[in-house]
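Here is one chain, start to finish.
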Amino acid sequence: MDEIFHDFLSYLRSEKGLSPHTIEAYGRDVKFFLISFPLPIKQEDIIQHLAYLKKQAFASSTVVRALMSIKVFCRFLRREGVLEQDVAQAIESPRLWQLVPDILTIEEMELLLNIPDSETYAGTCDRAILEVLYASGLRVSELCALTIYSIDDEAVKVLGKGGKERVVPIGKKALTAVDRYLCFREHLPNEKLFLTQKGRPIDRVSIWKMVKNYAKKAGIAKDISPHTLRHSFATHLLEMGADLRIIQEMLGHSSIATTDRYTHVNAFRLQEAFEKFHPRK
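Its structure:
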């Protein structure tokens, strides 16, 4: 291992012509990576390492540089015949944050959903919003645009990006939460589904603040937003065996490549579970 690492530094110096400062940074990044993931390197190792750096709140620039260092190292290993293929080639820097989005566990989702007070207008409205976001994977902008005619007994009709309409199934718990909320807002004559107590449509900023507030009350340390519920929706479906194409349709993604990020998240979570629970890890 030490010999390969020193050969890599020589390669950066003699053939890549990098500055001493850059070589030092690349070497430091690769050495830190190899502490947890010795050769041979797998793509899942790189994904897990990036997720760890993100979880530890490293600056975005630091994580991107770490990825670039590892990519250069993997190309070197492929050239030297240490690896049969460049396992880092498919991981693209601009898609870094899409690769490892934050999600809530099912237990954390239950905690979050149970915080709103179901005996008040604000509480029933907030609960209905959280339930619909998690049950359907809607973007918060799509949720704000819903009307009282958007939801029936089985699904929600959504107007997504580019004016594309889609129909997404919605569970009984979300429907029950919406029905209870509507009982509280009967006196508010407005076609928009979610309204403030003064009858004005709820906006994205209000929902963002609401999610942050309830996450804090639930004792959830993760830095979440309404979009986290969308990520959680997709990841939990995948974990339970849903087909990726079905998830793509429900999320309203035009390309399967966008939905494919959740397979990377799932692979990381499987590895994490193995390391935590398997007696012969």
